[in-house]
Amino acid sequence: MSGVNEIRSTFLKFFADNGHEIVSSSPLVPRNDPTLMFTNAGMVQFKNVFTGVEKRAYQRATTSQKCVRAGGKHNDLDNVGYTARHLTFFEMLGNFSFGDYFKERAIELAWTLITKEFGLKKDKLLVTVYHNDDAAAGFWKKIAGFTDDRIIRIATSDNFWAMGDTGPCGPCSEIFIDRGEHIWGGPPGSPEEDGDRFLEFWNLVFMQFEQVTPEQRVDLPRPSIDTGMGLERMASVLQGVESVFETDMFRHLIEATSAALGQGPGKDNIASYRVIADHLRASSFLISDGVLPSNEGRGYVLRRIMRRAMRHGQLLGAREPLMHRLVWALVREMGQAYPELVRAETLIEETLRLEETRFRKTLDRGLAILDEKSVGLKKGDMFDGDTAFTLYDTYGFPLDLTQDALKSRGISVDQASFTDAMDRQRAKARASWVGSGDTASEAVWFPLREKLGATEFLGYETETAEGVVGALVKDGAAVDQLKLGESGAIVLNQTPFYGESGGQVGDIGVMLGEGVRFRVTDTQKKAGDLFIHLGTVEQGTLKAGTALQLDVDHARRSSIRAHHSATHLLHEALRQVLGDHIAQRGSLVAPDRLRFDFVHPKPITPEELARVEDIANEVVLENDEVTTRLMGVDEAREAGARALFGEKYGDEVRVVSMGKTAREHGTNALGWSVELCGGTHVKRTGDIGLISVTSESAVASGVRRIEALTGNYARKHANDAIALAKTAANELRTSVDDVPARIAALMEERKKLERDLSDARKKLAMGGGASASNGASAAGVREVGDVKLMARAVEGIEMKDLKSLADDGKKQLGSGVVAIVGVTDDGKAGVVVGVTADLTARYNAVDLVRVASEALGGKGGGGRPDMAQAGGPDGAKADAALAAIEKAMAGA
Ligand code: SER
């Protein structure tokens, strides 16, 4: 008997030994398919390789692929727990040939593996082929030696496998095992085929065609092979048990549940144990692939799975949240094959614990209502859809949970009245939008939001994906197409492009489809969570309904991530250096810079700023993982997560933590920096590279702003500064180290030269030169009556020096009046009049300076009787001003 892990590795090794490349499972959220909710088959990641669009380095591959069949087209959720073989999460083992071998070799390999490696007995096996596939039937006869009655021809789509309405497809051949007469059921094609006796465990698809549109089917470039074996089913066969839930892996998970509950399963409640084990796997793998519970799309399917398990935990009498206490057991079983599970263990535990804690708050009350309203109902009755809606809307019971709760009593839910109640509520919500005062040009988005639902954002996990165009908008109105050269907005069902929010700018990039290219120049969010991609059609015509390959400008986004994470680190570092009052007021996270505004009453000193930068860079160097959790907003606040002041948050918030936790570092229980944030971040703090704070300033009273750069931008900034220093050193003919001393010396020298120059000018001014009044002596001294008047007009002397010139003049004269008009470079004038002490009784300097000022076109002037100063706009009148003083003295 082989354990699940052994079967998986035997399968992969067998195909590796036969020239197949072992390829890792792709994520559960398909990157390359715009319509699939979850990866539901091994071939999903190879879809484009089959059609020849994508080339790989190998032509044969083998995988063990994580699959989820819940929500969307393939939905097994309702059956899980109640049948022997349905699972929401399962592993599909497969081998693939991309135009290499075809039918014969595929059948040969399959036959060798199951009979030689797995030791299945030929007489228990039988196969189906598509009704007209004589070739496949012939190979089975030749290779397995089957007689015709063991090769069943099926004409229905059961034996023609198609991925969906479009995509690669072809006839297939399924391998069945007869598990014995004691189990009810008949061979494929018989009326009893739905029974469990004949179990299909491997499907070999002979990929030959591509369904291009629902009407058009073309040949694939080369015939190929896609096979899918249900690992859990194979394990049940090899382990000789009737149900997948009795295989080793599920037994271990059910044991862990029993241990956590302190009680094991019995006949009446085994289904609950099975539901919990399956849903634990589905939820954990979805969370580790980046899906978090939400109220729409993939997140809502996850929530439904989680809550369904949680109700079964409640049924089993769990008093405390249960699911998160089982994660260790799953990691032990599957962590080696899927390391992503180990990496996400804490996140999975926390997400389950929080969801269960929150759900439990309403679970009891909801169940009581369910009991109360269904008390009189009997098998075959219908439960009221209005109540089912209340349970959904108020108590968080997804419809399938209510259905599941009533299933065992044979009661169904009135879905029509449930949908009515839902529609009524939508109409109410619509009415409130109309009243929300949005401008007319924005009104286009609300109906689109309602029609298309929220855009699924894939950009936390990936920067490339496929999406389908749900709507096109041009000049504020929905249109069917955008033609070459036209600009507009695209709404898709899902997108890796980040829509501007929380300070982080929107992504740019390119979208490609058959013969069409759209250049995205910005991404915005409208009506809450509708992502709109703005840009221009660069090739072809873009039509609604088209599938597009979506590529975010990767380098730009990486840099945005670094700047966003750096903003968080600076925020915490600021708080540590400046104090707890630091509260964020706004931020800008761009590819080439970041800006962070916060409350702080005074400028930050250079020393404080240096410490902030040091601390933030220390955390960068620690290179710890950046983790994202989903939490209730109150729980997040209690846990010390920082939030933007005054911002409205939903019930649930993403919480981004970086750096070491309280245990290791003595700060917050979740990490060193913990913030509510919907933005995109680096994987590890080391990815930031370097943080360099480039400026600190005030934006409003009490609000400071810092600006900073990260990674290459920080490095380039530093290099530019060094280059500048080198240029300066060259100019100064010295080394970079000596630049400060050299500049200080030059400044000193310059001051001295300025002083010398000023002295020289004064001397020159007082010794003649500039201009002097007519009839003056060389020094410009004349007699007015018995009084000496020194009258000079000077240029190139600073106004502040005029007074000292007048003082000098007074000393020179011993007794007399000094009048100096200084003309500035821009043609204005200043005038100073000095009167020696012995003459102040006769001449008042203030009166004389006013006379001069008037002549210069000015007014006023002031000072003391021995020294006064004034100015005027008209420097050309310097001589007239001096003449006016002389005249005033003569007349006095
Ligand atoms: N694609 C096929 C299936 O899902 C075989 O892998 O059954």
UniProtKB/TrEMBL annotation:
Note describing how the cofactor binds: Binds 1 zinc ion per subunit.
Binding site for Zn(2+): H564, H568, C677, H681
Top-tier EC class: ligase
Ranges for domain Alanyl-transfer RNA synthetases family profile: 2-720
Gene Ontology MF term list: alanine-tRNA ligase activity; aminoacyl-tRNA deacylase activity; ATP binding; tRNA binding; zinc ion binding
GO biological process, one term: negative regulation of DNA-templated transcription
Catalysis: reaction(s): tRNA(Ala) + L-alanine + ATP = L-alanyl-tRNA(Ala) + AMP + diphosphate
Any one Pfam family match given in the protein's UniProt record, by short name: tRNA-synt_2c
UniProtKB keywords: Aminoacyl-tRNA synthetase, ATP-binding, Cytoplasm, Ligase, Metal-binding, Nucleotide-binding, Protein biosynthesis, RNA-binding, tRNA-binding, Zinc
Enzyme nomenclature, EC number: 6.1.1.7
Stretches that traverse the bilayer: none
GO cellular component: cytosol
Names of required cofactors: Zn(2+)
Subcellular location: Cytoplasm
Xref: SUPFAM superfamilies: Class II aaRS and biotin synthetases, Putative anticodon-binding domain of alanyl-tRNA synthetase (AlaRS), ThrRS/AlaRS common domain, Translation proteins
Domain commentary: Consists of three domains; the N-terminal catalytic domain, the editing domain and the C-terminal C-Ala domain. The editing domain removes incorrectly charged amino acids, while the C-Ala domain, along with tRNA(Ala), serves as a bridge to cooperatively bring together the editing and aminoacylation centers thus stimulating deacylation of misacylated tRNAs.
Function: Catalyzes the attachment of alanine to tRNA(Ala) in a two-step reaction: alanine is first activated by ATP to form Ala-AMP and then transferred to the acceptor end of tRNA(Ala). Also edits incorrectly charged Ser-tRNA(Ala) and Gly-tRNA(Ala) via its editing domain.
Family: Belongs to the class-II aminoacyl-tRNA synthetase family.
Full protein name: Alanine--tRNA ligase
